[in-house]
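Summary for the funding panel

The consortium committed to producing paired sequence-structure records for every protein in the target list. Below we show the first two records in order, beginning with the earlier of the two.
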Amino acid sequence: MSNAIAVAGAGMHPWGKWGRNFVEYGVHAARAALADAGIAWSDVDLVVGGETVRNGYAGYVAGSTFAQALGWNGARIATSYAACATGAQAIDTARARILAGMSEVALVVGADTTPKGFLAPNAGERWNDPDWLRFRLLGMTNPAYFALYARRRMDLYGATSEDFAQVKVKNSRHGLENPNARYRKEVAVADVLGSAVVSDPLHLLDICATSDGAAAVVLTSLDYARRHGLADPVRVEAVSTVTPTFPNAVIDMPLLATDCTGASGEPEHTFKESIALAAYEEAGIAPSDVDVAEVYDLSTALELDWIEDLGLCKRGEAEVLLRAGDTTLGGRIPVNPSGGLACFGEAVPAQAIAQVCELTWQLRGQAGGRQVEGARVGITANQGLFGHGSAVLLAR
């Protein structure tokens, strides 16, 4: 049995630092997605909101908040939270109700207003919260973890700071063509290497910003899509929300150590590899079938990790693809044609949905100057704190 549903509409609010309420961004994205789908708000029977922990009670009940802001229409509601994987979990919640026959038209919205600087835990003392502990005990901000992963690539595979800088150069070039991107400026390798070192070996321009922004999708059953003249829609073929398995032999933010492998040995797959494998297995699609990928480039080095985690090349070969131009527009497997988080920054509940928006436009051939020619299959990759996997596989 196919688990496919249709992406009828996609919409975004441009990323930036706008200083306004997150609801305003979410309503903008939602209305854009509904207009793109040609579906009236009154026809939506389910609203799933991506929770934002920084925006008070309204953010904790985001499904209800967005439904009220759009004008109560009697729809069912749900709210999802999975840190940076929130958007994918919200999409999966909507998909489950559609496949169960309990919904025909779902609106999924994620929006955020972020503070300046590091994303940090909420205030208060919580000694059983690993996210709080890593700040309290070690002062380990997110970029400190990104740097550990970057150093690992350098030690294992011979990656260089110039390789990392080339990822930023590529993504900044892609972002020039994206009207929703926050940063639309070409960057040279020298600019990256000349920017301040944040956590060695990563420079300021290797690391993504924190942003305000929103994204939304309208999801429907394939039967509804057919009845309403949505011919050959982009389909969600799989959503992966897997958790790690013990032993977890690579440190996973926000933890301070790995699990011990002494009793059971190395696992067959790392957590990040298992995220993609679950999506490929569910969809019956192989990595070799993928035409375009949107991955979670919190840092330039992490993009290289994800290329391998998605099976787009063998372990340790991502730099080879990068240097050959395979991951840029016009290459064999373009990665982050949107510009990625390098050009957007993080708006936590929105970013996994934004990846789906980008791939929807790519598979429709509507991505303008950043279009991946002939794209028929795309995959997203994302990860949330505390073991939230996130991959969405789309096809047309």
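The next record, for a separate protein in the list, is shown here:
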Amino acid sequence: MLQKKQCVAMLLAGGQGSRLGILTRRTAKPAIPFGGKYRIIDFPVSNCTNSGIDVVGVLTQYRPLELNAYIGSGAPWDLDLNNGGIFVLPPYSTGKDGEWYKGTANSIYQNMEFIEQYNPDYVLVLSGDHIYKMDYAAMLNHHIKEEAAVTIAVRQVPWEETNRFGIMNTDENGNITEFEEKPANAKSNNASMGVYVFTWDKMRAYLIEDENNPKSSNDFGKNIIPNMLNANEKLVAYNFNGYWKDVGTIESLWEANMDLLEDPAPIDLHDRRWRIYARNVGLPPHFIGKKGEVINSLITEGGVINGKVTNSVLSGGVVVEEGAEVIDSVVMPSAVIKKGAVVRRAIIGENAVVTEDAIVGEKTGDIAVVGNNTVLSAGQKVASGEQAGE
């Protein structure tokens, strides 16, 4: 057994992310670029580093290659440690047995040996597809103070959106009395953020019980949490009032990027007290040419701008040629916008090429998407809400 840790984090990064359509056709959702220089997974992992949690298991099974390569040794997040660090934990075979993760709870169950080698008192469970800054240490302290079996981070959402979330109903002391999964008529607007602190002994017992139930979906929201409520375990809500965005859809991914262009932005990426760390790709400084024009935009290193960029987020190595326009859009690493092309209210995938005089997106309507490595035809049009690519 390794040195004992008070808390171990388990980050759920295995989902296909089908609501992101063509962007996750060959890439795991947590590896999707965000905010010019980051990947989605940088946010929960940086939160762990900043919160003093130095053991992070990343549970992945869908298209893990790019995510695994990005995480590497964990050095960008100061998690390349002799006793601890960050570990990618795909499903594996043991003798004749071996299976994909069947659900969020099963993914933890399959990795109980990894957790137990650190003999933790608590386990922090995180989702890998949210953009936010959160002090998990403060949440852990609240959990310890309340002597809870599980503490669930919640935030208030607009009432008209409660049918999209798991809703936690509480008493006057913040104890969770009822859990409603995407209710049609919610009793409260306290939505689960998918961030949990479990007391490990309790969690372990319920995981084993759940695994032995052939009718279970092996899911935290559908099975583990309701089972703990029914057994009168102490479940506590932890209120979070900061910025939080589930970027599991094309629209929400675009919106979260656009949020960074507000002044001030609702999430402060310049805060030196709580940095969001990312792998440095080692590109040269960005360059804005004599005919280049940039208005209210994020331009990342390696970019070459000779066209016009307005209210947009451009990742590293993006090229915008003379006469091209990028408006209200997100352009991912190493994409090229050729001369005369117009990109408006769109997401352009990694290494994509928007060829001469092509038009992607419209002034209004749903977000248009060009997939990774896609090369549009000269003059091709991608309408609002359409997705171009394989």
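Regarding this second record: The longest helix spans residues 200-211. The CA atoms of residues 297 and 312 lie 5 Å apart.
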